[in-house]
Amino acid sequence: MFPRDFAWGAATSAYQIEGGWQTDGKGPSIWDTFCHEKGRVFGNQNGDVACNSYELWEKDLECIQQLGLTHYRLSLSWARLLPDGTTRNVNQRGVQYYNRVIDDLLACNVSPMVSLYHFDLPQAIQDLGGWKSPGVATLFDNYAKFCFQTFGDRVKLWITINEPQVCAKLGHEVGIHAPGLKEKGTTAYLVGHNMLRAHAMAWHSYNSTYRITQNGAVSLALNSDWLEPLDPGRSEDVTSAERDLIFTLGWFAWPVFVTGDYPELMRSSIETQSKMMGYSGELRLPRFSIDDPPILGTADFFALNYYTSRKVKSGGCSEQILSMKRDLAAEEVLDPSWPICGVSWLAVVPNGLRKLLKYIKDVFNNPTIYITENGFAQVGPLQIEDVERCKFYKSTILEVAKAIEEDEVNVRGYFAWSLMDNFEWADGFSARFGLFHVDFSDPELRRTIYQSGREYAKIISKYKSV
Ligand code: GBH
C-alpha cells in the first residue's frame, strides 16, 4: 500500500524540546521572552528545560531507533546558532550540537528533515521589528545560507518556515503565541508577507548556490484544517468553506504553487471589508514587489501539517473593526459526531486528511506531498495504554493509504507529531502529543514509550523496506 521508499517519521521542534535556553552561548528567542512574562502560558510554564534534549539527545535517539523511523523532523534554534540573529556571531557550540544530532541520525540510517524556523525568532531581531520589518527577510536568508553551507552536505530535506499562518495570526493578531501582539486587521498580513519573502529568498539561495552540490529539496510547512460546508446544499456555506480554505492554506500556497500572488478571492474579500470601513484593501494585503525574487515555484514539495477539520457556515463578524475574522466572513463549527481529543481544538477526523490531500492534488497541481505533522493530544491523567491514540494513528494512516491508492495522491511521507511529550506552546506541558511519555517531574526526564508508540513502530516495520 505504501511506496517502498515512503518516509516514516516523527517530528519535534527546538523550543518545544531542547531546553538549555541560555546554555553554551544561546541567545534568547521570542518564546523565551513570551513565557517569562506572567499570564502568557498555562501555569506560567516555559521551555527553559523542556525535555532537555540539548543535553539528553542520546535519549531521543534511542526513542527514534525504538520506533524504527526512517526520518526524523527537527528544527534548528536560530538563536542557538546565531545568538543575535546575524551571521556576524556564530555560536560554535550550537553548530557542534546540531552536527552531532545530524551525524548520529545518519549513523543510525535515519534521514533528517530540518526546519530552519519553528516559531522561535531571535529576540534581537524582534527588537528590530521582527517579522513586521521587511529587513527580516534578508536576515533569514543569511541564516538559511549559513545552515545550508554548514549542514547541507548531510541534510537533504529542508523546511524554511513552519506554519507561517499560525505565526502571523496567533503571534500577531490573536496574541496567544509569541511575540503576543494583538494588532488586528493588517499586521498578520504583513507578517505573512515577510515570511513568504524570507522563504522565497532562502529557496532561491538554495537553488542557485547549493542545489548543484547538495541535491536536496526545500519547502515550507503549511497547516490547514479540512474545511467543508456545514450544509452542502446551501451555496453560502459552500462558498464560505472554499473561502476559508483559501484564507488558511491558499494564503501561502497560492503564491508558491499557483500564481506567484495571493488568491484573487482573498484580495477581493479584504477589499470589500476594507471599503465598508472606509479603507482600501491595498493598505492591508501587500503586493509582491518586482525587487524581490519571484515567489512562484519556490517549493520542491508540498509539506502539510494536518490535525483536524471544521464545518463552515457563512457569517459576519459583529465587531466593528477590521480583522482577519471579518475578512473571512465565515464561521467554523464542530460536527457533534466528531470526538474531541484532549485539547479543545482537536476534533478527531482522520478522513479529513484524505479529503485535504485530494484538494491539494487538484488545486496545487499534483505536487509531491509530505505530511510533516499529524497527531493526537492527551490531557488529564496519564495513560500509557493510550488506546484512543492507537486507533487514531491506525485510522489516519489508513486514510493516507487510501489517498495514495484510490485518489492517486503523491504522498511521500508521514511524520507523527510528536516523538515525545513536549512544551505545547500556550498549553505548556498540559497537552501531551508524544509517542513517548516524558516525566517532567523526574529530574532525569525519563522517556517511556506509549502503547501508540509501539503501534506506530509495528506499522512502520510492516511497510518499510529493509
Ligand atoms: C502544530 O500546529 C505546531 O506546528 C506544533 O508545534 C504543535 O506542537 C502542534 O501543532 C500541536 O498543537 O488555541 O483554539 O486558537 C498545528 C496547527 C493551529 C493547531 C492553531 C492549534 C490553535 C487553536 N495549530 N491551533 S486555538
Automatic annotation (TrEMBL):
The active site is at residue 373. Transmembrane segments: none annotated. InterPro entries: GH, GH_1_N_CS, Glyco_hydro_1, Glyco_hydro_1_AS. The keyword Hydrolase applies. Keywords: Glycosidase, Hydrolase. One of its GO terms (cellular component) is cytosol. It comes from the Eukaryota. One of its GO terms (molecular function) is beta-galactosidase activity. GO terms for biological process: carbohydrate metabolic process; glycosylceramide catabolic process. Belongs to the glycosyl hydrolase 1 family. This is Glucosidase, beta, acid 3 (gene/pseudogene). It comes from Poecilia latipinna (sailfin molly).
